[in-house]
Specification:
The structure is a single chain. With 399 residues, the protein is mainly beta. It is built from six helices and 25 strands. 13% of the residues lie in helices and 46% in strands. The strands form four sheets. The protein has a 17-stranded mixed beta sheet that branches. It has a three-stranded mixed beta sheet with strand order 11-14-13, covered by helices on one side. Strands 20-19-21 form a three-stranded mixed beta sheet, covered by helices on one side. A hairpin with a 2-residue loop joins strand 24 and strand 25. The longest helix is centred in the middle third of the chain and has 11 residues.
Length: 399
């Protein structure tokens, strides 16, 4: 890894080719835009949020405003290594769209300086994934016999999905699902009846594919020929003053089948949970039949000499849920975010394993981390787009 020759051979820098078109009936109009922003909040949301900053001809702006109910935007994002001309599809999606209703001072009219003297509008446009809307409107209501949890879940997750095998997959002679609207609420209900994983679950319906994962942070095969583990080294910003603030790209190790990212501590921000850890250090769960289970929590409690329990009642005596609560509390104590540039965002996702190594004063923070959020900020540079990727992590157990 210390050989400069090897580093050069493995170094990868990724740029993007992005096309956005406005579709109305049989008419197709290319959209001139300077920025595309995508926020993938794997921890608190079920779908990405996205918007573009565009410059529209006045007549196109008016046409889009007047046809918001039936007009559509098609967004195609391809990525490629700068040393190669071969492009790889990241995603292609059809979106509904919305213009801002507040902050209209950001929207202005300007006159082009060329001979055509055209009027333009600069505006932000929000993107709404049609496929996700349809899945979230689906009504689920069924009665199953002689089945198991995994089979029932699989029947309704029909999109491309990376799914981690369940820790618990009980059999049922019969199982009734009351009317439930949308996949997220369906998964919440099913998990309340029998926990999928002993660490809780995450469901995210992304633009490339969907994910149903635990909070363990272990690598899951994505079946797209990408490697499953990222090793991220965070070096002291004072170690080499000649380095740039952001170290671009990443390295690909074919032999070890993994990726390496090097960043400086100057682009890393830490977050500490100083409130939740002090509230309680034990979970005490009571079932409907009076049976009880307790779990100690490994957190920095305000007074280690005292036991401060959090008392919870569980539906259907689903005592596996206590492991979910324990994990959620323990992994919130150490969080961080970092900014990287020229990554291949099509392979940076929550199904990967992330091992962070710190030098200097933060060595005690080294370990495995869970990717909880990914922000993608695409900006135009010449004929292509460059992306700043903001990664959010929470530390998990190395077990």
């Amino acid at each position: 890894m210390n050989s400069l020759a090897i580093i050069k051979e493995l170094q990868r820098y990724y740029y993007y080719s992005i096309d956005i078109e406005f579709l109305l009936d049989k008419e197709t109009i290319p959209i001139d835009f300077s920025e595309l922003n995508i926020d993938n909040d794997y921890e608190n949301a079920f779908n990405p949020t996205a918007y573009i900053r565009a410059q529209l001809e006045e007549n196109v702006y008016i046409k889009m405003q007047n046809n918001r109910n039936k007009g559509r935007l098609v967004v195609t994002v391809n990525t490629y290594n700068v040393e190669s001309t071969v492009q790889k599809k990241y995603f292609k999606k059809i979106f509904m769209y919305e213009f801002p209703t507040t902050g209209l001072d950001e929207v202005n009219k300007q006159t082009d300086n060329d001979s055509n003297n055209k009027a333009y509008r600069k505006t932000y446009i929000g993107l709404i994934d049609i496929d996700a809307i349809n899945r979230n409107k689906m009504i689920i209501n069924n009665l199953f016999v002689n089945t198991n949890m995994s089979t029932m879940i699989h029947q309704y997750l029909t999109q491309d999905i990376i799914r981690e095998p369940f820790d618990y997959n009980p059999d049922f002679d019969h199982f009734f699902i009351p009317p439930i609207e949308g996949i997220p609420e369906f998964l919440r209900y099913m998990n309340s009846r029998s926990s999928f994983y002993n660490t809780g679950f995450r469901y995210f319906d992304g633009y490339k594919c969907a994910y149903l994962l635990s909070n363990k942070g272990i690598p899951i095969d994505s079946k797209d020929n990408s490697f499953s583990t990222f090793y991220i080294t965070i070096s002291s910003a004072n170690a080499d003053p000649s380095q740039n603030t952001i170290i671009d790209g990443f390295m690909e190790n074919i032999n070890r089948k993994c990726y390496y990212i090097d960043v400086l501590s100057s682009v890393v921000k830490f977050y500490e949970n100083t409130l939740q850890d002090k509230l309680f250090n034990q979970i005490y769960m009571i079932g409907y039949d009076g049976k009880t289970v307790k779990q100690d929590i490994d957190v920095n409690h305000a007074d280690e000499s005292k036991t401060k329990p959090k008392i919870i009642r569980t539906f259907d005596s689903n005592f596996n849920f206590i492991n979910t609560l324990k994990n959620q509390l323990e992994i919130t104590s150490q969080s961080l975010m970092m900014t990287c540039k020229c990554l291949d965002n099509s392979i940076v996702d929550p199904s990967k394993e992330y091992v962070l190594t710190f030098s200097g004063q933060y060595q005690d923070r080294s370990g495995r981390y869970l990717l909880t959020r990914k922000g993608e900020q695409y900006a135009k540079k010449g004929e292509q787009y460059i992306c700043n990727t903001v990664l959010h992590f929470k530390k998990v157990s190395n077990n």
